[in-house]
Amino acid sequence: MSTGQATFMEVNAMGEATTLKISSEAERRLAHEQALANTRISGHVPTPEFLADCEAEIQGTLTLEQVRARSLERALAKDRPARGVLPDDA
What we know:
There is one protein chain. Helices cover 50% and strands 13% of the residues. The chain is an alpha+beta fold. A hairpin with a 5-residue loop joins strand 1 and strand 2. It starts with 5 loop residues before the first strand and ends in an 11-residue tail after the last helix.
């Protein structure tokens, strides 16, 4: 269960990073929408699974750490066959 507060990094025009604490669902939704817009500009198309995880974080049923872990596991699972790793070896 989420603590109700997410942390995002923001970089200003001077290239300085600041940490944002986002606690309301509306703030989390806006932060996710902005982040997704940035990745889409770069040509990234998020998967339905990733978008579902984002929605769960916005609603507070997953933490950002859980979303990251799930995304990493999906990426690794896709990469295993290319590395010749069988499911039983993972």
